[in-house]
Design brief:
It is a single chain. This protein has three domains: 151 residues, Agglutinin, subunit A (Orthogonal Prism); 106 residues, Orthogonal Prism (Agglutinin, subunit A), CATH 2.90.10.10; 121 residues, Bulb-type lectin domain (Agglutinin, subunit A, Orthogonal Prism), CATH 2.90.10.10. The protein has no helices and 43 strands. β15 and β16 form a beta hairpin. It is elongated. Keywords: Signal. InterPro entries: Bulb-type_lectin_dom, Bulb-type_lectin_dom_sf.
Length: 405
Amino acid sequence: MRGRTTRGTHRGGRTTLRRLTAVATGTVLLATGLATAPAASADRLDTLLTVGERLERGDSLATADGRIRLQLDHVGGLKLVDRGAGAGYPGERVVRDYTTNQHTVRYVELEADGTLVGYDDGGSRVVEEARGSGAVAVRVQDDRNMVYTDTAGRPVFSTDSHRNLHVFQEDFLVAGDTVLGERQASRLVMQADGNLVLYRGQTPLWSSETSGNPGAFAVMQGDGNLVVYSAPASGPRRALFDTGSGFANEGDHVELVVEDTEVSVKIRYGRSGAFYPMWSSGRSSDRVAAGDELDEGDIRVSPDGRCVLFTTQVGFGVGCGEDGYATTSPTVATRAGALGVTRMQSDGNLVSYRFPAGGSQPSDVPFHTGTSTPGSFLVVQDDGNAVVVGPDGRPTWSLLTGRIS
């Protein structure tokens, strides 16, 4: 890190730069204090970047232990990386890649208006973050968040990189990591007690039931199996929980997805556009109750386990067979090219909504059962039918026959 003496005060021939030292206050680490700027040297590792200072190739902005780094490598790649939680834990993970646009970065500088800028060899700005934030310093935190602070040490911008929206193959979750749902209503938390828990608000909806194992961590393995392992410090590594979904092949894409009421492991085969379920926390249920949603890849399983109600981008249907997937033929289409969500409403109507890419408001309602009895629920049966049942136990709609009077 090369410091330019554009800030600070000159006293007795020494120029001091105002440095901020971390004080833990919840999710965001605030900053205050003074320190002397270190002398410039090759491949520096420092804990704070202030206005006028640069990261040049080989330099890193890092946590005190060096585990979390915003590193500018020798070929111009700029990445926020987690180098692993320690001996016995998973290895390096790229949290954020700033140079996926094929550009390379020559140096990174925090500019006077608080913008972090990466310049290429020709002097063009190829990376920008926290534009005009007014920050005077930026720090990488132990929780993988990168926080920009003003002259009073108040946070004015953060990357929220401590919260994940996606977990792919080879990604891992250590204590304190959080994965947000697509609409951020729910979150999956790897807790310090070793339990992996899905919350909606403050209400737990599902857990791996692995509490009592401090330091346990979760890995989305390359084969598609989500596994919670015991902490290395507790002795030989043990699998405390797994989803049993380890059947992905080379070229398949697997993702752990957090939704409003459940968490799923989904697979996209080769270059096909749709994700299909490998495992879901909802598979222990044969029904969709009032307030439940089925997003792409969600499943419900009939009582004998032979038939599976599933959802894709183009709708939902039921497939039956020895493995539950022998025949899959969607019978209700929500139209391709957009996110489809099927929701059992509190009024008893099962409705499929279509959301535009990136949108939070539905653009279309391509299907609904037309049922209107509060307390109704959808159940998938062993015969391959899916039926809306009223609170009195009477069916009011069937996937195979439609409305039932």
